[in-house]
Amino acid sequence: MDTSQENTQAIPSVEPQSEHRWLQRLVGEWTFELESTPGQPEFTGSETVRALGDIWYLAEGSHQVGDGKPHRSLMTLGFDPAKQRFVGTWFGSMMTHLWVYDGHLSEDGSALNLDCEGPSMSGDGRMLPYRDVIELKSDDQRILRGLVREDDGSWREFMVTHYRRRT
Description:
Blueprint: H1 18-24, E1 28-37, E2 40-52, E3 56-64, E4 70-80, E5 85-92, E6 99-105, E7 111-119, E8 127-138, E9 141-149, E10 155-165
Antiparallel strand pairs: 1-2, 1-10, 2-3, 3-4, 4-5, 5-6, 6-7, 7-8, 8-9, 9-10
């Protein structure tokens, strides 16, 4: 067997889909205000969303909370045409859990529902279903809602983050 020749089989390129173009709308510089109790800002921060080619999007956030320590986060988002699902991750400097997203657009196309699993906020060691919902209000405003599924099957909103485009 001749091992001097490498396997030069080409990797097929992926053409951006309409779902990738939906994600493209997130690209830019943003400021945000997070509320964990309705009407009461917990903290503010900034986020830069950039494209990696035409099919992946990276959202890098930073903020400071009451402890004065800087916190950073990174969200990755894409769309997998083979699965017909949005895919991605979220992780932050304030925790060790890697949140893995599986998502879909709302019927009207205004919101991206990202399902994932994560540790219970009560600290009891259970893993629970969560959903992050990115809702585009306009080209310059969006909302991120964090929800957790309760034991009765209902979804409870535990945070709302309001984003405004800077550039």
